[in-house]
Design goal:
heterodimer; A: 371 residues; Butyryl-CoA Dehydrogenase, subunit A, domain 3; 3 domains; 11 helices; B: 200 residues; 2 domains; 7 helices; 88% helix
Chain lengths: 371, 200
């Protein structure tokens, strides 16, 4: 009986001990620090939102920072979870998760702003490039430009269309890269073309003097004169200082600049005269008016250029004519001026041998043409 | 009485063992889900099906947070059912996202290859037209310019081939479209020149 009572007593003590221990454990458990689950979940949600807004592409630094903070928060959470529950402290987890939320929001905002800004910037850039491409096509495409200039234009056009395609599929970064390259190339092409024309038009004052002198001569001598404006691709027939006819002309394919040597496919610039009239078997271009190229100025320039090694030893060239067979719509002669046969009939009938022929780069100044 | 107490304690001990052994973190499921997401990424799901891939990654994060939430609880109260369900969802859905990405990638690949073949055929057509074009003085300069432009188109198409070989199909499509547009412009220019020559 006494033994049974003793056992009962021991069990009671043990039970009491377990009960107290359980109470202590329960107390510690319920007073232990709680993990910031909601804050971490919010951080995850904010990160997901930033990723959906393509922050990886448009705000990579901010997103990387947010992800690093989020990972740190999770790592710290895991670290704390490995400790006894009553030793766990989640303050650092909370702080890191909240910082991750802030960074993810910054990444989201930054991404949206970047995207929107890029979108607007691209649209603006596309307009600029399109306008510059049109400028080139309108002002320079028909000039006998260097291959490198034309290649820059063509490559700019290719890059522009490529950028348009990327833009349409919302690949704004790729579109931006292509537009930057297109802008660089078309700017180069336009600048080089402008410089080329500006250099050419340096003789503008002399051209205008030649034309004025020729018209004055026509008035004074009550005679016909022939003036060709290369840039306008037109020729003008004056009598007694009055304009009587205007015709379209075609020239050598390398028509910008004076004729420098034989075979350069350039049409000369200067004051000449008709030295011979040809028709029938004497010309293969219906009717022709031979001019006295080269004049003294041409010869002096040729010799200077030859001395300075600027041109090949091919001779100065000759047989520059105003002839028929034109109307092809392109500059195709070896340096002569071509008109249609019908126009040539008129010219041939009114211009006698010895008629002044003045060929100029342009009768108008470059700024007038640009406007 | 003594036997009853011993039995009770035994039941409690067995229950504790049962509870703690059942609530094990789903390590295998995590490994499988991570591998499935990684496979989808390797298939460029982040590029071809970004929305679906981001959703997949987010689900993975949800599961990992749920595991950690359970890990924060007292061992007896842990329950990984929810995490398991999410991981199962990720493991099951990742191959679908992967398949969709592969399908889109293959579609882009086929599209870029077809566009390149068409563009090369167009270039061959333009070359034939250059042969037919008027060769006289009046056509010489224009033909030289067209030939030069065609060379640039061909160079661009060479870049397209490189892009296709590098699996950058979307950029290849952009480039081939630009080259095709230019080649078509050259073709029209030549056809007009040939027609003009025919009328004369």
């Amino acid at each position: 009986m006494a033994k049974r009572s003793k056992t009962k007593k021991i069990l009671l003590i043990l039970l009491s001990f377990f009960l107290v221990a359980a109470l202590v454990v329960a107390y510690l458990y319920y007073t232990a620090d709680e993990p910031p689950i909601e804050v971490i979940d919010q951080a995850r949600q904010e990160l997901s939102n930033a990723e959906q807004a393509e922050a990886k592409r448009y705000a990579p630094v901010e997103l990387a920072q947010a992800m690093a903070l989020y990972d740190s928060a999770r790592n710290e959470w895991q670290l704390q979870n490995k400790k006894y529950f009553f030793l766990r402290k989640f303050d650092k987890v909370r702080t890191l998760a909240m910082a991750a939320i802030d960074s993810a929001r910054t990444a989201l905002t930054s991404s949206l702003e970047q995207k929107s800004g890029l979108h607007q910037d691209l649209a603006k850039k596309m307009k600029t490039i399109e306008s510059r491409l049109r400028t080139f096509e309108k002002k320079y495409a028909k000039l006998p430009l260097k291959k490198s200039i034309r290649d820059n234009y063509t490559n700019a056009h290719l890059r522009y269309v490529e950028a348009e395609q990327a833009y349409l599929r919302a690949a704004y970064q790729e579109a931006g890269i292509n537009l930057d390259e297109a802008l660089r190339l078309i700017t180069l092409a336009n600048k080089a073309s402008t410089a080329y024309l500006e250099d050419y038009f340096k003789a503008s004052g002399q051209w205008q003097s030649w034309a004025s002198e020729t018209i004055a001569w026509s008035k004074k001598n009550k005679a016909w004169v022939f003036i060709a404006d290369k840039y306008a691709h037109e020729c003008y027939l004056y009598k007694n200082g009055t304009l009587k006819h205007t015709f379209k002309i075609e020239m050598g394919s390398n028509w910008i600049g004076p004729k420098l040597y034989k075979g350069d496919l350039a049409t000369p610039e200067g004051k000449y005269q008709i030295s011979k009239k040809k028709s029938g078997v004497l010309t293969k271009y219906y009717k022709a008016l031979l001019i006295n190229y080269p004049n003294e100025q041409d010869k002096a320039r040729y010799n200077d250029n030859l001395r300075n090694g600027l041109i090949p030893h091919k001779g100065i060239g000759n047989l520059i004519e105003i002839h028929g067979g034109g109307g092809k719509g392109v500059n195709w002669t070896d340096g002569c001026i071509a008109l249609t046969n019908e126009e040539m009939d008129i010219i041939y009938s009114v211009l006698p041998s010895g008629t002044p022929v003045t060929i100029v780069g342009s009768l108008r100044k470059l700024n007038e043409l640009s406007n | 009485m003594k036997n009853q107490i011993v039995k009770m304690m035994g039941v409690v001990a067995v229950s504790a063992v049962v509870f703690t052994s059942c609530a094990k973190a789903p390590e295998m499921e995590v490994t499988n889900a991570k591998a499935a997401v990684e496979a989808a990424k390797t298939a460029e799901a982040d590029r071809y099906t970004p929305t679906e891939f981001n959703a997949l990654q987010d689900s993975m994060s949800v599961a990992m947070n749920e595991i950690e939430t359970q890990n924060s609880k007292f061992a007896l109260f842990r329950n990984y059912k929810k995490a398991n369900a999410t991981l199962t969802y990720v493991t099951a859905n990742a191959p679908m996202v992967q398949e969709a990405a592969v399908a889109k990638r293959e579609e882009a690949k086929a599209q870029s290859e077809q566009a390149l073949t068409d563009a090369n055929n167009l270039v061959a057509e333009v070359k034939m037209l250059i042969e037919k074009a008027p060769k006289g003085k009046e056509g010489k300069e224009v033909l030289a310019a067209i030939t030069s432009d065609l060379t640039l188109v061909e160079l661009s198409l060479n870049e397209v081939s490189t892009l296709i070989n590098n699996n950058d199909f979307l950029t290849a499509i952009d480039k081939v479209k630009a080259a095709t547009e230019k080649a078509n412009m050259l073709k029209t220019e030549l056809e007009e020149a040939i027609a003009k020559k025919g009328k004369r």
